[in-house]
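Technical annex, item 7. During the second reporting period the consortium partners agreed on a shared format for inverse folding records so that results from different sites could be compared directly. Each record opens with the tokenized structure and is followed by the designed sequence. A conforming record, contributed by the partner at site C, is shown below for reference.
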């Protein structure tokens, strides 16, 4: 039986946002859990239960474009100003002054931006896998294109005509079968590709995700799923209904976000925790090198044996660290 608090709704920043809340309303500052792509608030089901049982007030929204939350049409409606503004509006709706923001994957990028843009609403920040980095010296899409080429998934996402949305939308179960698995134990110096239609793994990371999904066959995948059939059904049913475009539109604002952030000081001036995953192939622990220069009050914690979906792969360890840090730093 999957336990989730009741779904509630908030009018925030021009949209209706679905969210889940647990724990005592008297607990301050509460913890806001922000998911990544392709995920939903359900990705935090283990932490909602554990943190609330520990007496911590915890809130997990479906963010703009996802799940029970509105999916505006304009691509520009998914820029960083809207995404951080949504969280401020959620606090307003709940009459919360400040919160600790915890983010995984894309959610990590959002929560690191919160103290840069809305410092008066942020008590602390926790990044899960996603580091805080300085503003790139050039447009991040051009940097990714130069490093990885046109088939790199983020580069592909920039042009809707290339059909990435359609590939994911027409292969929802394949997408979650392929993505939501534990990594293969590292026996080589480089991470493997996901198996595609029985083709053997090659010693490099395949970042052409749309094409990978189009050719994926779970029968030939030796990796262990991290979701039970019941849990996978929640993701598949949700994205079958909503599609993937809302989340992909976050990527389509990377150049816009970069252009509009030139005058923002990148120093994070709140207590911060960086939870790293030893075997994350896209966001490895090495990607956090140098964060201390931008975050004076930073702790780091390594989750060994975990791939990218850390809060779902190692839920007890992630929850325990969040509880320990929250209790120690916010008495």
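Designed sequence (site C submission):
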């Amino acid at each position: 039986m999957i336990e989730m608090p009741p779904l509630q709704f908030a009018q925030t920043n021009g949209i209706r946002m679905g969210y889940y809340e647990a724990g005592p309303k008297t607990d301050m500052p509460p913890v806001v859990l922000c998911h990544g792509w392709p995920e939903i608030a359900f990705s935090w089901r283990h932490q909602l239960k554990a943190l609330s049982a520990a007496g911590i007030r915890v809130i997990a929204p479906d963010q703009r474009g996802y799940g029970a939350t509105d999916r505006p049409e304009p691509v520009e409606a998914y820029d960083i100003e809207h995404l951080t503004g949504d969280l401020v509006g959620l606090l307003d709706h709940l009459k919360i002054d400040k919160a600790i923001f915890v983010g995984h994957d894309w959610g990590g990028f959002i929560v690191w931006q919160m103290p840069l843009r809305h410092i008066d609403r942020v008590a602390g920040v926790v990044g899960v896998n996603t580091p805080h980095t300085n503003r790139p010296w050039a447009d991040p899409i051009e940097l990714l294109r130069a490093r990885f080429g046109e088939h790199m998934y983020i580069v592909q996402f920039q042009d809707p005509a290339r059909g990435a949305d359609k590939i994911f939308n027409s292969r929802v179960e394949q997408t979650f079968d392929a993505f939501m698995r534990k990594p293969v134990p590292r026996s080589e110096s480089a991470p493997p590709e996901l198996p595609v239609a029985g083709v053997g793994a090659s010693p490099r990371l395949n970042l052409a995700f749309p094409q990978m999904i189009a050719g994926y066959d779970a029968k030939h995948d030796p990796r262990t799923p991290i979701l039970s059939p019941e849990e996978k059904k929640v993701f598949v049913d949700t994205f079958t209904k909503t599609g993937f475009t809302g989340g992909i539109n976050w990527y389509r604002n990377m150049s816009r976000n970069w252009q509009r952030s030139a005058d923002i000081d990148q120093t994070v001036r709140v207590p911060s925790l960086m939870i790293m995953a030893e075997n994350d192939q896209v966001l490895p622990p090495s990607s956090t090198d140098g964060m201390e220069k931008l975050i004076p009050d930073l702790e780091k914690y390594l989750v060994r044996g975990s791939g990218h979906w850390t809060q779902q792969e190692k839920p007890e360890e992630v929850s325990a660290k969040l509880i320990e840090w929250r209790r120690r730093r916010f008495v």
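Confidence is low (pLDDT under 50) at residues 188-204. The first strand starts at residue 7 and ends at 12. All partners now use this format for quarterly exchanges.
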